[in-house]
Amino acid sequence: PEALGLLWYQAELGFPLDAGIVKEARAEWDRLGTVAAVVGTGAGQLGELEVSDLTDVLVMVYSMARMAFVEGFEVPEMEFGLREVFLEIARRPVPGPADDGFFDYFYLATHVVFILNSYNGSLPNDPAVCPWLYGFIRQSLEFWLSDACDVFGGQYPREAV
């Protein structure tokens, strides 16, 4: 996936794709043969992953899927993709700040947002697209800011969230 990321940015910046990286990335993808082999799990096993591993799979699948938009890189057929990963994320219970796994789920949620806007910090995010996700992130940020204020003995303006 790192090589795919480099090729993506070369294309985004209008640079020619590095032919050696294209050749090696395709050879590795062809050698592994499936998305499951590349990311280390199949669609049927997504439910068995720890949240931190699901975050890794999300980012890798995204890196592979976006290559379909890069001229000069032929993407093999993917037996599963973002849809299946997003469905697995939505299927899981959302933890509260006192629950085990809260930090990992917060990290996963931020990466879902990054992927929804293609890691483009200048694109607006629309909470209506996924209200539960943005609600969780808002609640999490309020928790983190409140916790930080408690630690440092200060207050934070609610407008900061």
Structure description:
With 161 residues, this protein is an all-alpha fold. Helices cover 57% and strands 0% of the residues. It has 7 helices and no strands. Helix 4 runs antiparallel to helix 5 (82-91) and helix 6 (102-116) packs across helix 7. The longest helix has 22 residues, at 131-152. The mean pLDDT is 88.
Which regions contain 5 or more consecutive residues with pLDDT less than 50? Answer: none
Give the termini separation: 33 Å
The percent range for strand residues is under 5%
Radius of gyration: 18 Å
Shape: globular
Based on helices, strands and strand pairing, what is the structural class?
mainly alpha
- Written as H for each helix and E for each strand, in order along the chain, the element string is HHHHHHH
Oligomeric state of this protein: single chain
What is the number of E strands?
A: 0
Which range best describes the helical content: under 10%, 10-25%, 25-40%, 40-55%, 55-70% or over 70%?
A: 55-70%
- Summarize model confidence as the mean pLDDT: 88
Largest sheet: none
* Continuous helix count: 7
Features:
single chain; mainly alpha; 161 residues
Briefly summarize what is shown.
The protein is mainly alpha-helical and 161 residues long.
Secondary structure: elements and pairs:
Layout: H1 2-12, H2 19-32, H3 35-39, H4 51-65, H5 82-91, H6 102-116, H7 131-152
Helix pairs in contact: 4-5, 4-6, 6-7
